[in-house]
Write a structure and sequence with these properties.
The chain is α/β, with parallel strands linked by helices. The two termini are 69 Å apart. Helices cover 58% and strands 7% of the residues.
Length: 752
């Protein structure tokens, strides 16, 4: 072998003809240039002539004539086969054949082993049926690429060989034939250093010499690899068009119709490129590496073909994306209708509903168990009351901490009726937004704190399910709590308000249960502070006067607390005061809390989560009654709740109680004036009692200066009332659209 290589090297270096060359050319004195010697030996058509012919076809202007010729060869006879397994095999061959041209690494470099399905009986049978056609195409490519035939004519000859097949099959069969020859070439190149048989065969093909000059050849091989990659990408795109499900898409869809008009052209130029690649390899092995390197026009030809194929592919990919979008919309609409039908149907258990909402695949463990943090099957929820906690990633720590407290309390005694439910967190994320590392970290941190079940991955939630959650259950961004009974029936579209107001005792969270709980309630202090602070409840039991007040105006707070203490001292009543902040402006509330504590103005909650929960419960009371269709003109309790919420938006306020009895619910201006004018009503205290006397005087002031009422409903709360009556004058309120920023909200909401 080494002798052979040495002889070949000496022949290339010595311009004097060898005896073999003299037999071909008997003139011993004639000095023949080296390229011509090689050409005389093999007698191929001039490389430049091949390039010139091919370039002429690249500038063919009459595309209509070309398309007409292609369509004349297209005569499908109904024979259809799944090209995907064969294409997968071709991909594997060409990927491994185009790894590298470095002989030192080519033998050692390997690709990751793919799933080998080529030994399946059905695939073997398919290959047997197609082997004759592939062999004919392979011989046609080999002959035409070495004989210098016209590229366009050769392409049409291959179209004639595959006339009875579909467009995608034509392409895959041609690529299969090319892969046989191309794969054999690179197989020898990769194993000849370690296999004697391969070494001998490689010598016949001049492979050792070619690989020894791999450095200068690298740019040319890169151009070849780029063209092959473009061919494979184009073929993959065409195969995907063939695999589009006819159930969801028809040929008259504009995107598909447009693509089908371009697919014959794409198939033509891809087969044309196959011939160009085959010609390159044939030229390399027959003419030698030096002439191949010197022919700069070949690199131009390869890049031109790659550019043309990529341009066609870009167009096809755009249409394919539109087709996929259309199919996705059709499937989403179908799934949406299925969900609606399932929700309205009667079931023996909740499994079908839960699988549809969370994850329909049986081989997936879609839930993460809260305490053990292990993945579990959805069967753990079978025939149980399930509360779906639906939220985005912006759910606050306040919301989670209060829910966790309620949940843990319900777990203390699992035999109690109100403990017979499970919670599942269903994270809803916008699929149009790119999932970032920050979002993943946020999701994992939220999931880690939850003691209940959670969906393992937000991507498991189908887009149709998200649409249903938003359109039917009116989810925006604020958490909602959808309740399913053991048979999967929806008994509440949103029980979050019941959970905030009453906690687990609201079980089973039905509308009838909600109505029953409200019938048992009255306007009393315990309703406002239940579950918040046992200290206040103890003061109620002791019969003390308790003033709740709020706002962020420290000047008013100082005047109010000082005056209230003075009046209480004069009236000789036991007084306690509690600062409960404001529904928003968290940082300002924190500053006020610190100032009140330092100045010892009154009792206040150091944990701002309690402030948040106080206002959240009040808002939930209003939403709960609105959901039940109750209005302020028929419900005094709702009227007082809405007054308090409105006062919060207009500044300071105060609620005065004698034990449970709430006798004043007023705006900052009227309440402070009531105390500053104590001398005007102090004589009524002995006969009426302090609470009634104070209430009567405040009512006079209030009727003379009704404050404006205002309610704000964030767009993320879901259902917003079409209209509302004013809790003060009972007239229909005007509706405005406002934009606001409190500057101190958590950065999490800005991120998500």
């Amino acid at each position: 072998m080494e002798t052979t290589n040495k002889a070949m090297a000496e022949q290339t270096a010595n311009p004097t003809p060898t005896p073999t060359q003299q037999a071909v050319n008997p003139s011993p004195t004639q000095q023949v240039p080296k390229p011509e010697v090689t050409t005389k030996l093999i007698d191929p058509v001039s490389l430049q002539q091949l390039i010139k012919r091919d370039r002429g076809m690249m500038t063919l202007s009459d595309d209509n004539m070309m398309l007409k010729q292609i369509h004349e060869t297209h005569a499908p006879d109904g024979r259809e086969f799944n090209v995907r397994p064969l294409f997968r095999l071709v991909e594997d061959i060409l990927n491994r054949a185009t790894l590298t041209v470095d002989p030192l690494t080519s033998a050692a470099q390997t690709l990751e082993t793919t799933d080998d399905r080529t030994n399946q009986a059905s695939f073997i049978a398919l290959l047997e049926a197609l082997s004759f056609t592939i062999d004919r195409i392979s011989h046609e490519i080999a002959y035409r690429s070495s004989s210098g035939s016209d590229a366009h004519a050769t392409t049409l000859s291959i179209f004639n060989l595959v006339s009875s097949y579909s467009w995608d099959a034509k392409l895959v069969l041609t690529l299969s034939a090319f892969a046989v020859n191309y794969g054999e070439f690179w197989l020898l190149a990769q194993i000849y250093p370690t296999n004697q048989l391969a070494k001998s065969m490689a010598t016949l093909k001049q492979l050792p010499v070619i690989m020894e000059h791999s450095g200068p050849l690298k740019p040319r091989f890169n151009a070849l690899n780029n063209l092959i990659k473009a061919m494979m990408d184009n073929t993959r795109c065409i195969v995907e068009f063939k695999e589009l499900p006819p159930k969801y898409i028809s040929q008259d869809l504009p995107a598909l119709a447009k693509a089908m008009t371009h697919i014959p052209t794409a198939v033509y130029w891809t087969i044309r490129s196959v011939l160009a690649c085959a010609t390159q390899i044939s030229t390399l092995t027959s003419m030698g590496h030096e002439l191949w390197i010197s022919a700069t026009s070949e690199a131009w030809e390869l890049s031109t073909l790659a550019h043309k194929i990529n341009s066609i592919q870009d167009l096809l990919k755009k249409q394919l994306a539109l087709c996929y979008q259309y199919i996705e919309e059709r499937i989403e609409a179908e799934t949406y209708q299925k969900i609606q039908s399932l929700i309205e149907s009667i079931h023996i258990d909740n499994m079908m509903i839960l699988r549809t909402l969370i994850c329909p695949k049986d081989d997936v463990l879609p839930l993460l168990e809260g305490s053990t943090k292990t993945r579990v099957n959805i069967d753990v929820l079978r025939r149980k009351n399930v509360l779906l906690l639906i939220s985005g990633l912006s759910i606050s720590q306040d919301e989670l901490s209060i829910l966790e407290q309620i949940y843990n309390e319900s777990r203390v005694n699992r035999t109690r009726r109100e403990s017979q439910y499970e919670v599942v967190w269903v994270p809803v994320v916008d699929r149009s937004v790119v999932w970032t590392e920050a979002m993943q970290n946020r999701f994992e941190s939220l999931q880690a704190t939850m003691p209940w079940y959670s969906v393992y991955n937000p991507k498991l939630i189908n887009k149709a399910v998200i649409r249903f959650i938003k359109e039917v259950w009116h989810f925006r961004n604020k958490p909602i709590l959808v309740v399913l009974d053991p048979q999967g029936k929806v008994v509440s579209n949103n029980a979050i308000h019941m959970m905030w107001i009453w906690g687990s005792p609201a079980f089973p969270f039905t509308s009838s249960r909600e109505e029953a709980l409200w019938k048992a309630e009255t306007w009393r202090l315990e309703l406002l502070v239940d579950g918040l602070d046992p200290t206040i409840l103890n003061w109620v039991k002791e019969g003390k006067f308790i003033y709740l007040y709020g706002g962020t105006d420290m000047e008013w707070i100082r005047k109010f607390t000082t005056t209230a203490k003075t009046v209480a001292s004069a009236a000789r009543i036991p007084l306690e005061m509690v600062y409960v902040g404001k529904s928003n402006k968290r940082e300002q509330v924190r500053k006020c809390t610190n100032a009140i504590t330092v100045e010892k103005l009154s009792y206040c909650w150091q944990d701002l989560a309690m402030v948040w929960f106080f206002w959240t419960r009040l808002e939930s009371m209003m939403f709960s009654k609105i959901q039940l269709g109750i209005t302020v003109d028929v419900d005094p309790l709702l009227r007082e709740i809405e007054k308090l919420l409105s006062y919060d938006k207009e500044g300071g306020w105060a609620i005065l109680s004698n034990g449970s009895f709430l006798f004043v619910n007023g705006h900052s201006s009227t309440v402070l004036s009531t105390f500053t004018q104590y001398n005007a009503w102090k004589d009524d205290v002995p006969p009426k009692g302090f609470d009634i006397a104070c209430m009567d005087f405040h009512s006079k002031l209030h009727s003379n200066s009704l404050p404006c009422c205002r309610f704000e409903f964030p767009s993320e709360v879901g259902r917003i009332p079409e209209n509302m009556k004013c809790p003060e004058c009972l007239q229909i309120m005007e509706k405005y659209i406002t934009f606001g920023c409190c500057h101190d909200e958590s950065a999490t909401k800005a991120l998500f």
